[in-house]
Amino acid sequence: MLLLNEIKIPIDADENDLKKIIEKKLKAPVRNYTIRKKSLDARKEPHYVCSVLVDVDHEDRYVRKGYQKYIPEDLDPPCFDTDETCVIIGYGPSGLFSAYRLHSVGYKVIVFEKGKRIEERVRDVECFFKTGKLDSASNVQFGEGGAGTFSDAKLTTRIKDRYIDYILDLFIRFGASDRIRYENHAHIGTDEIRKIISKITDHLISEGVEFHFSEPVIDLLMNDVHEAIGVKTAKGAYPADHILLGVGHSAQDTYEMLRKRNVTMEKKDIALGFRVEHPQSFIDERQTNAIVKEANEYFLRYKGEKGVYSFCMCPGGIVIPAMSDENSIVTNGMSYAARDSGFANSAILIQIFKEEFDDGLEYLRSIERKAYDYSHSYQALAQNIKDFMNHELHPLIFASTYPLGTVLYDFNRFFQEKDLEILKEAFCDFDRKIPGFIEKGIIVGPETRSSSPIRISRDENCQSVNTKNLYPMGEGAGYGGGIMSCALDGIRIANAILWKHEKIQSDR
Ligand SMILES: Cc1cc2nc3c(=O)[nH]c(=O)nc-3n(C[C@H](O)[C@H](O)[C@H](O)COP(=O)(O)OP(=O)(O)OC[C@H]3O[C@@H](n4cnc5c(N)ncnc54)[C@H](O)[C@@H]3O)c2cc1C
């Protein structure tokens, strides 16, 4: 395979055109090609710039002419004989990728997941969206695939890491389009990611990984020197050599248990706010430089005394109830692969520094409960953005996509005076960037679970600083935010266990 960089193609070029451009460059027919990267150059005459892998006859001739031969990096670890057991608590992206990698080298892997498999989980979530009957163990946060299963499944991350291709390759192997490898802001959509995760789980089960769904871990087994030596569930005790903890940021009961077990944790800054919704056509009209005409995104950032920013934008998506606890309200966003709801939503969040609260988990839960107490139901709180700016309350300019309905609420009551001021400055700034942003939009909230308020401290070997054999990972432990970064953290933990094994072997 040859790697050809800097291939320029017109905006409207199709697969055949690209093939012709490559053949013209090489002056020879190509057998096959795959796009590795594709980015938009919007200067002057907009066009795409691609990196392509090309399968061509007489490859060496081209290498002699200075073309680059592509040698894929082998990121699969070598297999070895081991009788050690890894227990994985939580099957979100961090749990899934650590399970996959540890199993592939030969560890016995046992996964405990509080929630259900996707098919049953989808039924529970759809029932909740229709009837308001919440199952606190099977919902948008809990179950096979973790929080990302009901999402836009955007695969964006600012992290540069060699394992990103490893993650994307696995998604592609189990059914994702290979567009996710090269598209900027690639997304899969909730309908597709569900199928892909289900297939990965089936594959792991067929390979001998042991799964315990609907069986939450309720305690750690510890020895006299504060080392974790296994886990306990309602069904029994399971000894293990390595315990990977990837329970997400909504596992309040697990954090209580860790506190009782004196596992070292620290406070972390958070962000909170609400979703804003606009007609998608309005967002599309305003993105005058955009090449695509539909489902446009925006990224907004305001740097005042505190940061205010848009987060997790879902073009053509819906706002969803994302609570896992009864009598609370939490919003988030989700979309299907087609992104065709007709509405755009994104979270608008303001930073809250750790010095501003005592117990972050309790702080967020109290806000979620306060919202429920006001609504007296799972209907979200909502207000026109214009009314929020003017401290007024009028009927919404359009109905929110939030499936359980909304209750009018003045979000001026929701924030501290100083934060309100900063938020309103931010909205004025966003309105300058996207004229009409205030006039044409509504607020739906509250949005409280964009990140974890705690970090479970790890040492240089990725183990808890005071509880040996316990490996905190992913978003809930404070080491990721989003599908890709949490998947990467799961791989990081798996690698830490492999290196420990290699070190023990070489020390012997
Ligand atoms: C609605 C929504 C939309 C999102 N959209 C996107 C997006 O488009 N792109 C993106 O990158 N990110 C998105 N995110 C964020 C992303 O999903 C998370 O960052 C990511 O899933 C976190 O991964 P994780 O492995 O740390 O934990 P999680 O995915 O939270 O998984 C933790 C798992 O642990 C289980 N668990 C909890 N306690 C226990 C216990 N005691 N025993 C056993 N199991 C337990 C839970 O049931 C859960 O399944 C979204 C999140 C939500 C809620």
In short:
This protein has helices at 15-26, 59-64, 93-105, 118-131, 164-173, 190-206, 252-260, 280-286, 360-375, 385-390, 417-433, 483-507; strands spanning 2-10, 32-41, 47-55, 68-69, 85-89, 108-113, 210-213, 217-222, 228-233, 236-239, 242-245, 265-267, 270-279, 301-303, 307-314, 318-321, 331-334, 343-352, 380-384, 406-408, 442-447, 454-456, 470-472.
Element layout with pairings:
Blueprint: E1 2-10, H1 15-26, E2 32-41, E3 47-55, H2 59-64, E4 68-69, E5 85-89, H3 93-105, E6 108-113, H4 118-131, H5 164-173, H6 190-206, E7 210-213, E8 217-222, E9 228-233, E10 236-239, E11 242-245, H7 252-260, E12 265-267, E13 270-279, H8 280-286, E14 301-303, E15 307-314, E16 318-321, E17 331-334, E18 343-352, H9 360-375, E19 380-384, H10 385-390, E20 406-408, H11 417-433, E21 442-447, E22 454-456, E23 470-472, H12 483-507
Parallel strand pairs: 5-6, 5-11, 6-7, 11-23, 19-20
Antiparallel strand pairs: 1-3, 1-4, 2-3, 8-9, 9-10, 12-22, 13-18, 13-21, 14-15, 15-18, 16-17, 19-21
Helix pairs in contact: 3-12
Bound molecules: flavin-adenine dinucleotide.
Describe the fold and architecture.
With about 500 residues, this protein is α+β, with helices and mostly antiparallel strands. The chain folds into 3 domains: about 1-70, Alpha-Beta Plaits; about 85-265 and about 455-505, FAD/NAD(P)-binding domain; about 270-445, no CATH class. Helices cover about 30% and strands about 25% of the residues. The chain is built from 12 helices and 23 strands. The protein has helices spanning about 15-25, 60-65, 95-105, 120-130, 165-175, 190-205, 250-260, 280-285, 360-375, 385-390, 415-435, 485-505, and strands at about 1-10, 30-40, 45-55, 70, 85-90, 110-115, 210-215, 215-220, 230-235, 235-240, 240-245, 265, 270-280, 300-305, 305-315, 320, 330-335, 345-350, 380-385, 405-410, 440-445, 455, 470. A 7-stranded mixed beta sheet has the order 14-15-18-13-21-19-20. It has a 5-stranded parallel beta sheet with strand order 7-6-5-11-23, covered by helices on one side. Helix 3 (about 95-105) links the parallel strand 5 and strand 6. Helix 3 (about 95-105) packs parallel to helix 12. About 45% of the residues are buried. The mean pLDDT is about 95. Flavin-adenine dinucleotide (FAD) binds near residues 146, 152 and 153.
